[in-house]
């Protein structure tokens, strides 16, 4: 153990995939890890105890939004972000850079970014590396992010190159400005989708000694293929002994594929944002529960999910709640979707431990992706590549198709050997019809 | 035990106040009881397990709204309202009468009420006693309400008199149409604020044998005084051996005063609706947590409340959540407010059991009401009327004033002898200031 605010244990690898554990002042989390996003010091709709129940071991909060409300001084006065939001496990805050760069009238120079707060009566603010560090110190997260230059996609080579160098200069300023010894500062690698700039940025960033490093500037509309090739250009140059965080990613297929390329940490708003619009993630892909076909569907979102939502409520109930804008609909759907993501991460970790990650990956994608999506992503021959008996993700257990269930109720036979789900399915099938 | 779907045990009385227990097919609830309102098969923002945690033993749902979405046939197909909404304890549904009478273009005749559903593409619907019974049978609540004629306030004598008679004719049709043996049908007494009509309606209604009776047509803008005098004109004529339900009431002071007049059951949207706009109920009255003075207030909504919200979150956090329209703000505030109501009901029941209800009533109102409100309701000399040592409601425990706490933090000393709250107060006071 060192004085470092972050320890990373790399337990095992399976191909390029890594299984490890990160320890920070507020506890540990297993990697590969998914961090749900609690923008304004709350994962929308979930009480901290609900969030814990999803299997989440760390969550993320946003510097830009917390700077608007309630303001870092208030969070500090309230005993810091953990105490304020009632989440006593690890927290990561972003630097605010991603948000301010996406503002339409943000003005960038070497000092920082100047923009107007929409909410604060149009108050003009300059966010700099030093200012971002100050805010993040007041918030008090375990892991904080450097203030970097995010370029859009697509981006001219010259602009991307300038951003790489400025990001490095700003990283040095961040490191200099950061004084709290109980927070781990991560550097961010940029370079857009240019292979040589990615390699350059990786090299320059790793030369600055930090407890962890992130890949930034992806998940900005470049698509799955470019995202993966950018990871391929970046990750191999990163330090093996430190955690690697792919920022803002993503869909389940993105996460599985990035784990296969050596990534340890992920965050994304997708499970919670999709939840609020009624989109459920399941082992057989995602579906929109607000669709009319689910109006009287007695089955849970995912029969093999053990979350509170799936144990207690039907698609019909969620269809009703989301369609009538009931708060509970957002809360229950979020609880399920985040649980789905965490179940997936647990299965990923188990597969890596067992040395069967490659098979898991094929089987997961085969079950999860639609045929169209398989073709689009180049996974058209997944079937022959794995043996169902061979890994932890319960493909056989998804006895309930996500669609057509109401119509095909009598045709669906449980093939599951686990007593719990089977009993539940029997009970559901015996509900009174009219 | 009889074949009746409802048994009422009257355990003890204290003055006119009554302490009892109602048993229906899905369980028992203690009276006096407060029923939180779950309009569309959800108490907004609360998972059923959260609702249970508030101490709620029964909840209410609305026929009119459930008839719009998801529709009674779907609820029936889903195994009934209990299974649909995941609430396995008693449920009461209203008849839809109150809602349809408040629609601007509702047309009333002897058959029923004809109106247009706003949501269902303006579809024209006639709601009749028979139709209301059919819908409520499909929904499957333990207690269902007769379809009655609700008159507005103020109301001409002649109109109120006609409504009394029509309500009786409709009650007979409801009883005739109602066939499920596992649901208890309650009759509703009308009569507006006319003493002789209240007496008449009470007499006519009790002549029809039913498991319980309700006082309707109040809480429609008549004010506290007229509400209480109307109860005084109604309740004494009601059958002693059956539960008495005062519909749609109300504020804590209304409930305490109605309990003193012999009422057993209450429902109201106030705790949950006020919660969503940031108004908290506490032992020292209610306050608006969105007020700027609470922006950095470290104390919970009510220091002596043991709900999940008060155990974990500050007024500052709730101020932030409600001001930024975060769903969690509504959920946490609702959890607290409903808990406050249920704690009050528990204290009421204990006081009746101990024969100290009159002292509880004075002490509660003295602590809860503002001076203005005391004067308005005629409670200006409460101080001399009770001894603080003498009853169950912990007046001494409210060590934290609901206002000015941030400014007076150092001046507030805990006088509470209970270890839990004292430790919590010490911990809060030791939070870092800037």
What is shown here, in short?
The structure is a homodimer of 434-residue chains. Chain A has 434 residues and is an alpha/beta fold.
Report the strand count of chain A: 16
- For the CA atoms, what is the radius of gyration of chain A? 22 Å
Mean pLDDT of chain A: 90
Bulk shape of chain A: globular
Structural class of chain A: alpha/beta
Largest interface: A-B, 46 and 46 residues
Q: What percent of residues of chain A adopt helix (DSSP H or I)?
A: 25-40%
* Domains of chain A, number: 2
State the low-pLDDT regions of chain A, or none. 395-419
Q: End-to-end distance of chain A, in Å?
A: 65 Å
Strand order of the largest sheet of chain A: 4-14-13-12-11-10-6-5
Specify the number of helices of chain A: 17
The largest β sheet of chain A comes out as: 8 strands, parallel
Which descriptors would you attach to this protein?
17 helices; alpha/beta; 2 domains; TIM Barrel; eight-stranded parallel sheet; homodimer; globular; 16 strands; three-stranded antiparallel sheet; 434 residues; glycosyltransferase (chains A, B)
Description:
The structure is a homodimer of 434-residue chains. Chain A has 434 residues and is an alpha/beta fold. Helix content of chain A is 39%, strand content 16%. Chain A has 17 helices and 16 strands. In chain A, a hairpin with a 2-residue loop joins strand 1 and strand 2. Chains A and B meet through helix 1, helix 3, helix 4, helix 13 and helix 14 of A and helix 1, helix 3, helix 4, helix 13 and helix 14 of B. Chains A, B: Residues 248-254 are annotated as: RNA binding.
């Amino acid at each position: 153990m060192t004085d470092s605010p972050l320890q990373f244990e790399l337990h095992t690898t399976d191909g390029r995939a890594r299984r490890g554990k990160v320890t920070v002042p507020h506890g540990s989390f297993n990697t590969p890890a998914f961090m749900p996003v609690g923008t304004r010091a709350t994962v929308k709709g979930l009480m901290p105890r609900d969030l814990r129940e999803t299997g989440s071991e760390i969550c993320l909060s946003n510097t830009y939004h917390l700077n608007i409300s309630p303001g870092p001084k208030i969070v500090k006065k309230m005993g810091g972000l953990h105490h304020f939001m009632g989440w006593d496990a690890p927290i990561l805050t972003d630097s605010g850079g991603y948000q301010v760069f996406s503002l339409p009238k943000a003005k960038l120079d070497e000092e920082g970014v100047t923009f107007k707060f929409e909410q604060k009566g149009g108050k003009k603010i300059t966010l700099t590396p030093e200012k971002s560090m100050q805010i993040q110190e007041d918030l008090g997260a375990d892991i904080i992010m450097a203030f970097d230059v995010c370029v859009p996609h697509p981006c001219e080579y010259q602009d991307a190159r300038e951003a790489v160098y400025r990001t490095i200069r700003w990283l040095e300023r961040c490191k200099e400005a950061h004084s709290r010894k109980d927070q781990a500062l991560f550097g961010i690698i940029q370079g857009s989708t240019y292979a040589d700039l990615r390699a350059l940025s990786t090299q320059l960033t790793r030369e600055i000694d930090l407890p962890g490093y992130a890949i930034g500037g992806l998940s900005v509309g470049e698509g799955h293929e470019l995202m993966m090739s950018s990871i391929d250009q970046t990750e191999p140059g990163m330090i093996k002994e430190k955690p690697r965080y792919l920022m803002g990613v993503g869909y389940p297929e993105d996460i599985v594929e990035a784990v296969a390329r050596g990534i340890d940490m992920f965050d994304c708003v997708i499970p919670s944002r999709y939840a609020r619009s009624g989109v459920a993630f399941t082992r057989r892909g995602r579906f929109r529960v607000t669709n009319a076909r689910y109006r009287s569907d007695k089955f849970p979102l995912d029969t093999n999910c053990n979350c509170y939502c799936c144990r207690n409520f039907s698609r019909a109930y969620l269809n009703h709640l989301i369609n009538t804008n009931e708060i509970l609909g957002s809360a229950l759907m979020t609880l399920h979707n985040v649980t789905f993501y965490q179940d997936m991460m647990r299965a990923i970790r188990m597969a890596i431990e067992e040395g069967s990650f490659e098979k898991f990956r094929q089987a997961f994608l085969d079950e999860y992706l639609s045929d169209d999506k398989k073709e689009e992503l180049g996974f058209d021959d997944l079937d022959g590549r794995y043996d169902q008996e061979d890994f932890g993700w319960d493909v056989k257990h998804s006895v309930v198709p996500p669609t057509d269930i109401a119509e095909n109720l009598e045709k669906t036979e449980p093939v599951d050997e686990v007593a719990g789900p089977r009993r539940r399915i029997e009970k559901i099938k015996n509900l009174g019809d009219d």
